[in-house]
From TrEMBL:
This is TRIM8/14/16/25/29/45/65 coiled-coil region domain-containing protein. It holds the Pfam family TRIM_CC. Residues 1-38 are annotated as: Disordered. The keyword Zinc-finger applies. InterPro entries: E3_ubiq-ligase_TRIM/RNF, TRIM8/14/16/25/29/45/65_CC. Residues 34-132 form the TRIM8/14/16/25/29/45/65 coiled-coil region domain. The keyword Metal-binding applies. Keywords: Coiled coil, Metal-binding, Zinc, Zinc-finger. Residues 82-116 form a coiled coil. It comes from the Eukaryota.
């Protein structure tokens, strides 16, 4: 099989080895993406906890405002903050769910790639090349179309207090 009418040929075993090396590189890419998505998931969970803490801090601040006889403003701002909290938490939970699904999809694809790497038949392995290229192209498109998490929600206590002041001023106007 290595020679064919004086043409240069590559043995099936050599081509399989080359394709297996490409497969291992692809698997490393998937594993890196899984790790990155898990990191994103942890960061998003931390953001959810931050928002929960921010709500507790805001309630304490507003109790001080009540003592200053600003009850009407207090109830309006609490409602606005609750609405924002619900929206932010809903967005974060939706993003967490999408990340969870993406991680599951990546793990499933990684498992398929792992299974393909152990194919014993050289010819069968080479026939799977098209499937590997399709998987690679699909994942590359997902990477390029990736969504990043951004938020206009205050990230620090001072940012939150500034937003509160702006809301209070808007209420008075």
């Amino acid at each position: 099989m290595d020679e064919h009418n004086n043409h240069d040929t590559v043995s099936a075993a050599a081509q399989k080895t080359e394709k297996q090396q490409q497969l291992k590189k692809t698997q490393k890419t998937f594993q890196h993406r899984i790790q990155q998505r898990e990191k994103d998931q942890q960061q998003l969970r931390a953001a959810v906890e931050f928002h929960k803490t921010a709500v507790e801090d805001s309630e304490r601040i507003f109790n001080e405002l009540i003592r200053s006889s600003i009850e009407r403003s207090h109830s309006e701002v609490i409602r606005l903050i609750r609405d924002q909290e619900k929206a932010a938490l809903s967005q974060a939970e939706g993003r967490l769910e999408r990340l969870k699904q993406e991680i599951n999809d990546l793990r499933r694809t990684d498992a398929e790639l792992e299974q393909l790497s152990y194919t014993q038949s050289h010819i069968q392995f080479l026939q799977l090349r098209d499937k590997l290229e399709d998987i690679y192209k699909e994942e590359l498109k997902k990477i390029s179309d990736g969504v990043t998490f951004t938020s206009d929600v205050p990230q620090t206590r001072n940012d939150f207090l500034q937003l509160l002041l702006e809301l209070h001023l808007v209420e008075r106007i």
